[in-house]
Each structure stands twice: as structure tokens, then as C-alpha cells.
What we know:
By secondary structure, the chain is of the alpha+beta class. 15% of the residues lie in helices and 31% in strands. The strands form five sheets. It has a six-stranded antiparallel β-barrel. Strands 8-9-10-13-12-11 form a six-stranded antiparallel beta barrel. The termini are far apart. The model is unreliable at 1-38, 71-84 and 385-419 (pLDDT under 50).
Amino acid sequence: MVVFFDFRFAMLSLSLLMIVCTFLGPNGVNAQSTAQNYSGIFGNGNNSLLNDVFNKVKDSVVQITTEYGPSDFPDRYFDTNSNSPVPTKFGSGFVYDKSGYIITNYHVVSESNDITVTFNDGNTYSAQLVGTDPYGDVAVIKLINPSEENLIPVVFSNSTKLRIGDPVLAIGNPYGLDNTLTFGIVSQMGRLLPNSDSGYSIPNVIQTDAAINPGNSGGPLIDLNGDVVGMNTAIFSNTGAYTGVGFAIPSNDVMRVIPSLIEGGSYEHPWLGIAGFKLTPDLAESFGLPRDYKGVVIENVVENGPADKAGLKDMIIQGDRYGQQQIISKDILIKVDNISITRIDDVISYLDINKKVGDKINLTVNRNGQVLDLISTLTSRPALSLQEITSSPSRSDPNVNPYSPFPDFKLPQLPDFKLPQLPDLGLPQLP
């Protein structure tokens, strides 16, 4: 059987991140106090807090194996033991409740022909896909006839209480190595994680340096109480090697989505229908605004979307024959529901946390120096990705893309230029 892993997590596996040495002074002055403070975490034998936390959660974490048909099998993978390879991908998940629901990443189980769940005790069950949220990379599967299994649901913690520097642990099945524990800290909160599959970014993501590897997808990120604070989903690496930058979906976001996935198989994300970028000091100054003016410059407004119907306008750029571009009209979104914003991340996060489909949202906009208050009614995200939506034909000219960064810019017509005829200088021929 051919086995390949989710290459979002292509990093070198680390079993434990030893951070004790970072607390030592140059002369070892703090060594004794550090050892005392952290003996409970890194102690030997029964004194290890990490071991206690692991034992509390290990029976709630599962290995998920998904098989794909030969038609889905990439040519670059091959099976050395069979003429008919069955491609298989490993991932992780965790028990949601006693009825057999398991939570994992969408990309772990999407488009699979067969799903198998293996527990820490070695018991294996088939599972069926119940609900998916491709935009949030969350999925729910359910065990088929798990009557003999003692299901131990995880306990969720409030992820909004996490702070930078808090210790966290990742449990999963990197490279198929079941129940692997890694340790790290919360490196940052509120990251915006691009999702190339859906075209929409995942907001509010936790950044951690706990080692996350192929097969950790869908496993829990837990605190020192053994409570789930997030679900491991991705890493950042230009080389495919471990770089200390991993990402997890916050537990609050997971908990908000799961009931809808179980009840209806899907989750509707509120949608405004805009694309934009942060207003920089130099750009603000060019607009005649103070350099510390904050807001999001609206680049694209999806036709007939909620923002379009509320009256939000595309940015208009014109260029001269020398190729110099100038923004001649723009909307700068400065507040949503009277809350100041500085980045497009702020808008996405606010919608995802505080709004639902059908809600109204107040948009405060600076349009060429005039401040306007607009009201939009949010709809659900369309099935098409944002790239496909914003590449639709112009509402007025089928040959012009209105969502291009330079919708009104055309290259000048070049003159008909011909090289002059050179005279015959009678140069001698080279031998």
C-alpha cells in the first residue's frame, strides 16, 4: 500500500522543544530557580506534568487513515509491494462526544473513498463523513458501530483566554507515528491563514512553535490542563523543513462550527464581498490624510454582493501614457459597527466571530474625503472561490475586468518605429 502524508506539514519531527535553557543567565545564576519552577513540567518519572497531561488526553486522540481511488493517485507516488497501489493519507482527530463524532481537518478527509479511525488501544473502526466546512478547514466524521469503544470526549477551553507565551502541547500522528507529543508556546494570536483550496483566508488563527508535522493535521492543541485550545492545521515553511511556525484553529471557532456540521452537514460563513489592503502612511499622505490615518482601502467590490448593494465602490486607478498610475477615486473602510479597523484581517475576524448570515453591519467609509455611513446585510459565501468571483466579466465592458487592480489603465499605442537603413561601408569580409 502506498502511503503519503499531508505535505502542508512537511517538517522534521521534534519530540519535545526544550526551552528551559532560555531561562538561564549567562553565568547560570537562575539555573536553580528555573529548575524548581519547571521541574513539574520537565520532571522525571511521575513528577512530569507533561506526562500527566498526555495520559489525560491520549485516549481521546485518534489516527485517521483515508484511502483514495487509483484515479486520484498522483503518478509520482508508487507502490513497491503491489501492482495496484491504494494511496493512503494519515491525519489526526479527537473525540467530540460519546455518540462517536470525531473532529478533524477538512483537508484530511475531503474526497476520500474510505475513512478508518484507530484509537490508542489499537481498536479500529470505519467512519463516515457527516459535515464539512472547507472555508474553515473543519470536518466531522462519525464512527460506525463503536459500541465496544470507551469513548472519552475532549474538554474544550476558551481560546480567547490564551496569551502569548502560554505553554501548549500538540498530540497527533506525525508520519503515522501514533500518539506523538510535542511541546511549545503560543507565539502569536489572531493570524490570518490563507486557504488556497477555498480562496478565503482563515481568521483568528493561533501561531505556535510546537512541532507540527505530516499527520498532525486535525489533532488537538492543548493547554497544561489537558483542555483543547485549538486544532492543528498548517505550518509555514519555505523549505519543507521544521521552522518553528505552526498554526491551529482556535477552539472557540471549532465549537461554533461543529453543531451546524452535525445537524446540517455544512456551515454558512457571513460574507461582505470585498477585497482590500491596509492604508499605509505614504498612501494616506498622498490622499491628503494624516500619516497615522487608519483604514482599509477597498480594492474590489463583488458585483451584486452585500457591500455592492450597500453602496461601497471599487477603487479606480488611471494611468497616463508614460505608465504612471494614480488612484483617482477610492473608498477607505475605517469602521465596522463603530469599531475602528486597520487591516482586512480585522474585518474578516469581526464577521466570523460576531456576525451570522442575515445580520446587518454598519460600514463607516471615507470616500475621497467625505465620511459616509452605509448599512449592509450579510449573506453566505458563494460556492465559487473569491478568485473566481472577482475575475468575472465587467458589468459594462465584456473585455475589461472591473476587479483588476488597474481597471481603467491601458497601455499607450506605440508609434510605428523602424530602424534606419545603414549605408554600405565596404568593410572587408572576415576570413
